[in-house]
Specification:
Layout (H helix, E strand, L loop, with lengths): L2 H8 L13 E2 L7 E2 L7 E5 H5 L7 H7 L3 E3 L17 E3 L8 E5 L2 E2 L18 E8 L3 H4 L6 E7 L6 E11 L3 E12 L2 E12 L8 E13 L4 E15 L2 E2 L2 E2 L1 E19 L3 E20 L8 E18 L5 E20 L5 E3 L8 E17 L2 E12 L3 E15 L2 E12 L3 H5 L11 E13 L4 E21 L2 E22 L4 E12 L9 E11 L2 E16 L5 E17 L2 E8 L18 E9 L1
């Protein structure tokens, strides 16, 4: 029986209801807040937009839809870790490793030893929407949020019933993926369960990738005002790195397992709301660094176990009309062990410079954020964070902004905000460059933005920013030996534009553009980034197409920087064969552009996929 016939046999006529967020976001204040009253710049990518091209990872779509955000890639699927890994995210040219914080439902998600995000863990199947805060978010989220925040908000279930979807697709280079998600709401109880399998042979020799992931989220409403939510997310992937074209690798393979678990108690009243959450993020990495053709295989494997455990509490309250005060406390304990393990004898050699088996640090912080509508046309926002690190010491993080409501559909905002990043464990204690006397990286962000809405049919946004940073941690040679030091400074400034408009019931458009000037260029940061997308719907047919143009992308920097310019066209055509089954075909890089986002790693030319999505 074909997939379509099976879908026809089991289809239910009930369809999922769409819930529009309008201008409400959670990332800027930790609770649902009207974006018009916040001086922060936030891009929201909803579930419909994330799924219209049937991608398994959220990052390609989020990058297209967010001005100023750029993510590197190295193949058709998979980002990997360690040497040769892609998935490096930058906002406004900042974020080479740990300067950009990824959250899952407000919970930090990064490797406890290395400090960087794990992009292969961000699957579309579990996502309700993604909120990108462009610019420093250290007031609420502390270290690693220096450049901004990508907050992945997981799936929700609003009505009693059962919703299930299954998605299968396959195509170029032996690529195949299967996703399944089940959502249940029965009175006070909700559950969301998802599973994913994907694999590809890759477009280059030795570039295979395979991943298996599972996600569970359970909720219970004790009363109309109190509820509990618990979740567990586990991802395992096997990734092969082919190396740069001019320096290929053999057997450079990684076996990575990442896990994330949390339990939260939430309250929501008319005048106050908040949450208490305990969480744990962990990982096990098993890496063979491989060898160059003609060389000899490595005799050891690199392995590490890392973790981040913590508690976070916040409570927001409105004491009088137009007022919102949020107070919160965060505590984190993070670290792990890293070692080289002999392939034959299993003997371990720990990689901390002092030979320690385990490394760990603690961080505790308190913050307050105050917002007040002074008049019908002016809102004021101010906040302060006091952050204490067990090794580095204390950091003060101020933030302030104004929102001018020019009329019911237009806002002008001004923001001054500080971002910082504490040195990570690797930089202080691991490998030869490690230095224990490092200080935090710091930056100040100055921003002016304007937003115009078009009576529910669309919006237009523009903002100017200027960033000045110092104390950047760089690697230099002192007495012939590598060493991490605080020596870097930078100034970035630029312009970001975004807009969308629904022309009629069939056609809609969206576009964004960002221009970035850097006095100290960084790899993986483009000077110009443009995206134009269109959607068409007619009866059972739907078409989504997008054109992305990148200019002045720095592949390498220095005395003779290498830059890349390219334009990519993508398109997806889908047909609803029955009320709950849709067939689709899609193409990426349809123009077969030759390009790379990471030096030495050319991307595939035109790739095509086809599949079916069943919604029950």
């Amino acid at each position: 029986m074909t997939a379509v016939a099976m879908a026809t046999a089991v289809c239910a006529s009930a369809q999922d209801k769409n819930y529009e967020l309008q201008d409400v976001v959670v990332t800027g204040t930790r609770n649902a807040t009207d974006q018009r009253h916040l001086p922060l710049t936030v891009t929201v990518v909803d579930n419909e937009k994330l799924n219209e091209q049937y991608r398994t990872s959220v990052l390609p779509t989020v990058m297209e839809q967010t001005p100023g955000l750029f993510t590197t890639s190295r193949g058709i699927l998979g980002y990997g870790v360690s040497t040769g890994a892609a998935g490096s995210m930058k906002i406004r040219g900042i974020g080479s490793g740990a300067e950009l914080l990824v959250l899952i439902d407000g919970q930090p998600q990064y490797a406890g030893l290395m400090g960087h995000p794990i992009p292969d863990a961000y699957q579309t199947m579990m996502v309700e929407r993604v909120e990108v805060l462009r610019g420093p978010a250290s007031l609420l989220y502390g270290s690693n949020a220096m450049a901004g925040v990508v907050n992945i908000v997981t799936r929700q279930m609003h009505q009693d019933g059962v919703k299930t979807y299954i998605q299968l697709q396959g195509g170029s280079y032996g690529t195949f993926s299967a996703d399944a998600t089940n959502r249940v709401k029965a009175g006070k109880f909700t559950s969301i369960v998802g599973a994913q399998y994907l694999r590809t042979d890759g477009h280059r020799p030795n570039s295979e990738f395979e991943q298996l992931a599972g996600y569970v989220k359970l909720g219970y409403d004790f009363t109309a005002n109190w509820k509990a939510v618990g979740d567990l997310n586990v991802t395992h992937f096997n990734s092969s790195n082919p190396g740069a074209i001019n320096k290929p690798f053999i057997d450079n393979d990684s076996k990575i397992t990442r896990g994330l678990a949390s339990i939260s108690i939430l309250n929501n009243y008319k005048k106050t709301s908040g949450a208490l959450r305990a969480y744990l993020d962990w990982g096990h990495h098993n890496i063979d660094d491989g060898y160059n053709p003609g060389g000899s295989p490595k005799t050891t494997l690199y392995k590490h176990n890392d973790y981040i455990g913590g508690l976070t509490w916040y409570q927001s309250a409105s004491f009088f009309e137009g007022n919102l005060v949020t107070v919160g406390v965060d505590w984190q304990h993070f670290g792990g062990s890293a070692w080289n393990e002999d392939k034959v004898t299993s003997k371990k050699t720990y990689l901390a410079k002092d030979g320690s088996e385990k490394l760990h640090e603690d961080e505790v912080a308190g913050y307050i954020d105050f917002r007040q509508d002074i008049t019908s046309w002016l809102s004021v926002d101010a906040g302060l964070r006091l952050d204490y690190h067990s090794v580095i010491g204390t950091e003060l993080v101020p933030q302030g902004g104004l929102s001018f409501h020019l009329n019911p559909t237009a806002d002008l905002k001004a923001l001054v905000s500080k971002g910082f990043r504490n040195p990570i464990i690797r930089e202080m204690y691991m490998f030869p460059p490690a230095t224990t006397d490092l200080e935090p990286e710091r930056m100040m962000n100055y921003e002016l933005s304007f937003t115009q809405r078009f009576n529910g049919r669309g919006h237009f946004g523009a903002n100017l920013f200027y960033i000045k940073g110092d104390n950047l941690i760089t690697n230099v040679r002192i007495d012939g030996k590598p060493r991490n030091v605080n020596s870097g400074e930078f100034k970035n400034w630029g312009l970001e534009l975004s807009g969308d408009y629904r022309i009629d019931s069939h056609w809609s458009l969206n576009a964004n553009y960002s221009h970035l000037r850097m006095d100290t260029p960084l790899d993986g940061a483009p000077e110009g980034k443009l995206y134009v997308g269109t959607n068409f719907q007619q009866g059972k047919w739907a078409v989504a197409a997008g054109l992305q143009s990148i200019s002045g992308l720095y592949l390498t920097t220095g005395d003779a920087p290498e830059k890349e310019n390219y334009t990519l066209l993508s398109a997806t055509v889908s047909y609803k064969v029955v009320p709950c089954a849709t067939l689709f075909v899609k193409g990426e890089n349809i123009l077969a552009e030759q390009y790379q986002t990471y030096a030495g790693f050319p991307m595939p030319k035109a790739t095509f996929m086809g599949g079916v999505k069943v919604s029950l």
